Amino acid sequence: MKKWVFLFLFVPFYLHIMAQDTLYTYHDDGRIAEKKVMSRFEPETVQLLERYVDDQLQSVVYYDFTIADNPQDSYEGIYQGGAPFSGYFKLYRLIDDIQLIDYYEEGQLKYRYSFELLEQLEGYMHYIYDKETTYKDGRIVNGPDYKLVGRERLNTFYYEEGEINAFDVNLFAMHYFNRLTFTKSDGQLIVTEMQSPVQLHISEPNGILKIDVFEEDNLIASLTVPVNFDKDSELNAYHELENRGDVMTSIFFMCLFLEPDSLDQLFQKLMVHFQQENMEDVMVYE
């Protein structure tokens, strides 16, 4: 005979306090058989179902998301020896209530699913996961990878054939969001900002870095950077650009003062820089 026990949790979400029920079912010997988590937005709807044998988690069924390439009413994950073995699992929290979806086969991570945050700000009741990251032998082959830095920054790295060819820097603050995008394409590093028409196009003609600054397709500044250039004299001509005081100008001068020897090295140094905790040099809020 199974017994039902109701446990009420109060969980804050987007300034609302909503009740979320967790229902436990027990075997005759008193050990847990099932755990149901009900939706905090639709209290009659099951969000998560866990099944146990001998107090060990055997399977989990999710009802609160959809994989765009494989739509189903629910998604099941099977555990073996207490570890994910096959199917779908929520194992990693990206930010707040947003979790990534992992897909396993024979105990190996094959895919990780995510979505574009800005496109589903109102989708918190049921997210649609339409971005896929593929893994082989525990390493990313293709797709996005995420790194949360503190509470103010989320970095996204885009892989192709095991190599990073672009990354985003998502900046958060009170009443503020911005995104910087760094992309290697056709022998150039292109830097864009979501809130600005300005773009940086960095190339490497004849082994020398060249930085072109465009605003709405108009070239407004250009600088050729020898490996050992004199910062004090070379930058005097760019005081007008420096006085702009915006994010893209900060990135422009950051590219110079990182002292790269090549375009690839600049790309690597920028990735490392944006994974550091202290980002005051580019956190410009308007």
From TrEMBL:
<protein>
    <recommendedName>
        <fullName>MORN repeat variant</fullName>
    </recommendedName>
</protein>
<feature type="signal peptide">
    <location>
        <begin position="1"/>
        <end position="19"/>
    </location>
</feature>
<keyword id="KW-0732">Signal</keyword>
